[in-house]
Design brief:
alpha+beta, Jelly Rolls, 34 strands, Alpha-L-AF_C, glycoprotein, Glycosyl_Hydrolase_51
Length: 655
């Protein structure tokens, strides 16, 4: 405790006390535990406009007029004004998934006298020279109507346009066109201009950039996916997060409503729409253009294991606390069983056939499934028991992840942790949203956890610096404390087998929660210092933990130094990670035992900044970013200088 208090004081006022012996002994021939391929992953939730308006590349907001206010995001312009020129029709129970569409009456209109403009998600990011793909479902009620699609800059000047001539049809057809932008604009919009004489119905009005991930039509924003792929994550947890629970059960996430044709996916309000009074987002909905098929496809694309989380019959306990009675829980269990079939089933099965029809006849090889998110109390335990019994009877090969509630300490956590371990639960999901002090002082959290039985999934972690808000919360102090904490997770890889930061994405103009791993606007994206910390752990994972000690003790904060070590059996390298939480450089001697010799060169990667408040921004994206250099290696003792406030990764070849 005294050392931790000293550390916090040192971080606050820059005290530095030199130490006598800083020799770190690395015992290469004494493996402790294997590091699972899933050790470092990513957590995705549709918060902070992470899906619609974020990684899902659709540029049109409220494309099917299903928001609570049907014309939210749209503006009607007409001169002269004619009442009823644009009406929203509702087909009600006949089309429950997508009941509304727009009926536009064009009475001998010239081009420019009647139009509807969509504002996008805090504007539309438009790039010069890029192709844009427009589409809409339409039906000609009467007459002939010509349609112009225009891209506008922030000054409402046209920077791209195309003309469409819908055919005469009484049934719904899709109308498509592509065109190129002549300018770049962060806050653009799209205008539909009508000409002619007639009545036309429109639905699912859509605009996508041509540079989506893998150039998939209607796909994901490529730069955001690339940021994830660069991390080489072992898993992707989806779709959350609190949206799994919903404000009440009617608004819970239901995976079956997110697959199949886009126009048949039933939109719901996002529970982050009104969750925070200081950051209201009344235009935040879930269209499910990014649904469970696309999540599985993303995992396959970047080589990550899928980890879906399903509702267990409980709404968010902070909101309504609604639960489904135990004698009515079977539909929730059926959803879980059907999801396994959707992911892994043969194409002759009901849900396997749908997967194949959507373009992926091969199974997704689902191996893990989460039951509930941040649920707690005896009501969660009794529901988890029912789920575990049913799922293990039919799919013993699927590992189940259970919730340990919202906090890593306290009576709520202790009850769940004790009871779930007694049930021999595969994984227990622990969450930590705490100040930096918690992360610095809990390096040893898992040192005395049982080595057998239930494993730990550190499913949501993030260091929250007090008295900060917004993007400035994603600063270097937060990341440095996380880097220190993760040494304790890696050192205990026998216990902790998965970990992920949360939340993942945040839009600068639409966030509800901070800090976040990755920040973006409509055109650019920035990895926070925390992003670089987890990425360095993930791409330098290694295959086996080995001892690294100082004075025959683990390195867990003496002189504000933290360390862990591993070997990579495939590349024949030793990987040492060292955090220096002091403001001053410290010199260390790495003493390697149990090997014949080291390679002649080591690669030393450093993440460092003297300013603990430093953040990465659009203007300065690499303010805190890794820098790599080569260092000469001679003998089995290697001196290393670690800068003040730094996270270091050293890779050395061995034989």
């Amino acid at each position: 405790m005294r050392r931790n208090i000293f550390l916090l004081l040192a971080l606050a006022i820059g005290i530095y006390v030199p130490a006598q012996d800083k020799t770190f002994v690395v015992s290469v021939n004494k493996p402790i535990a294997p590091i699972q391929p899933t050790m470092w992953g990513v957590f995705f939730e549709d918060i902070n406009f992470g899906a619609d308006g974020g990684i899902y590349a659709e540029l049109v907001k409220n494309r099917s007029f299903e928001f609570t206010k049907p014309l939210m995001g749209w503006k009607v312009d007409q001169q002269p004004v004619e009442e009823g020129s644009v009406l929203i029709q509702n087909r009600g129970v006949a089309h429950t998934a997508n009941p509304r569409f727009a009926r536009v009456t064009v009475n001998n209109r010239k081009r420019g006298s009647l139009s509807i403009t969509n504002e996008g998600f805090r504007g539309m990011g438009i790039k010069k020279g890029l192709r844009y793909d427009f589409s809409t479902l339409y039906r000609s009620v009467s007459g002939k109507v010509k349609l112009y699609v225009e891209l506008l800059n922030a000054n409402k000047e046209v920077i791209g346009t195309t003309e469409l001539r819908p055919s005469e049809t009484k049934t719904w057809l899709k109308l498509k066109a592509d065109f190129t932008s002549s300018a770049t604009e962060e806050k653009g919009s799209m205008r539909l201009v009508f000409e002619g004489n007639g009545i036309i119905d429109l639905d699912m009005i859509s605009l996508f950039p041509g540079d989506t991930w893998k150039n998939r039509p209607g796909g994901m924003r490529a730069d955001m996916v690339q940021m994830l792929a660069d991390m080489k994550p072992g898993f992707i947890r989806f779709p959350g997060g609190c949206i799994v629970e919903g404000y009440d059960l009617a608004q819970r996430y239901q995976w079956k409503k997110t697959v199949g044709p886009l126009e048949e996916r039933q939109l719901i309000i996002n529970r982050w729409n009104t969750e925070f009074a200081h950051r209201p987002a009344p235009d935040y909905f879930q269209t499910f253009g990014l649904g469970f098929f696309e999540y599985f496809q993303l995992c396959a694309d970047i080589g990550a294991e899928p980890l879906p989380i399903l509702n267990c019959g409980m709404a968010c306990q902070f909101n309504s606390g609604e639960v489904v009675p135990l004698d009515q829980i079977q539909p929730y269990i059926d959803d879980a069983l059907d999801l396994i079939e959707f992911a892994n089933g043969a194409i002759t099965t009901k849900w396997g056939k749908l997967r194949a029809q959507m373009g992926h006849p091969e199974p997704f090889h689902l191996k893990m499934l989460g039951v509930g998110n941040e649920n707690w109390g005896p009501q969660y335990l009794e529901r988890f028991k029912v789920f575990q019994k049913a799922l293990k009877e039919k799919h013993p090969e699927i590992k189940l992840i259970a919730s340990s509630g919202t906090d890593p300490v306290g009576e709520r956590f202790n009850l769940l942790n004790t009871e779930l371990r007694a049930l021999d639960t595969d994984f227990i999901d622990e969450h930590y949203y705490r100040p930096p002090q918690f992360f610095f002082s809990n390096i040893n959290r898992y040192d005395n956890y049982p080595r057998n039985g239930s494993k730990v999934f550190a499913g949501e972690y993030a260091s929250h610096v007090p008295n900060t808000n917004g993007a400035v919360k994603s600063n270097w102090l937060a990341a440095l404390s996380e880097a220190a904490f993760l040494t304790g997770l890696e050192r205990n890889a026998e216990v902790v087998q998965m970990a992920s930061y949360a939340p993942l994405f945040a839009h600068y103009d639409g966030w509800q929660w901070a800090p976040d791993l990755i920040w973006m606007n409509n055109l650019k994206i920035v990895g926070s210092p925390s992003y670089h910390v987890q990425k360095l752990y993930s791409v330098n994972k290694g295959t086996t933990v080995i001892p690294i000690q100082r004075d025959n003790k683990i390195i867990d904060g003496k002189d504000s130094l933290y360390a862990t070590a591993a070997i990579d059996a495939e590349s024949k390298e030793i990987i040492v990670k060292i955090v220096n939480a002091q403001p001053h450089e410290q010199k260390i001697c790495l003493n390697f035992e149990g090997i014949k010799k080291l390679g002649g060169t080591a690669v030393h990667t450093v993440l460092q900044n003297d300013n603990l408040d430093k953040i990465n921004t659009i203007a300065e994206p690499d303010a805190v970013a890794p820098k790599t250099k080569n260092i000469k290696v001679s003998g089995k003792k290697q001196p290393i200088a670690v800068k003040g406030y730094s996270f270091n990764v050293i890779r050395i070849k061995y034989s």
